[in-house]
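README: folding subset

This subset contains proteins for which both the sequence and a predicted structure token string are available. Records are stored as plain text. Below is the entry for Methyltransferase domain-containing protein (198 residues), shown exactly as it appears on disk.
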Amino acid sequence: MSDHRNHEWNHNVHYHPLVLRALPERCESALDVGCGDGLLAAKLAARAGHVTGVDSSPEMIELARRRHPGVEFVHGDFMSWPHGRYDVVTSVATIHHMAFDAALSRMAAALRPGGTLVVLGVPRTSPADLPYELLGVPYNRLMKALRREAQADGMPARQPEMTWAEVRRRARRLLPGVRCRRHLLWRYSLVWCRPPGR
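--- output ---
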């Protein structure tokens, strides 16, 4: 049985409900890119017939397999891994570890016609973003006071290079019709549906 560790919280777990709300209630297959410890993939398994999580860290894949034995986890580099086609593709706090344009295009290409892509990303703070991002500070303190913050489990950390404005501009160029939203706890979301028949 999966251990979703609902008693723990961090900025990425906080937005898992947002990711799930953007997806269909039921689907045949789902892929989680940069699955880490497998928590989101395990949540996807409640609504998908088959879920695959892929991550470049062998330690993370080993941890995910231990925690969520009912989900398929694959060790590999998503950018070279021979993926199939999925009804749902998700990625949380991963795309800033890859070349943005190539990674976003590859995630979109992994969708079946009519499929849904949800990317939760981390932007680089620019001076123009600072007033908005400061709004997240009291909310962040409140959430940390109410919930036990999950440890990172040794996941690699890399600082994002693209600001929110750059992310939005490039995402709209690559995926016409993508819905771009900025969120308080230093995250953004991209939601895109592949047109049927394409």
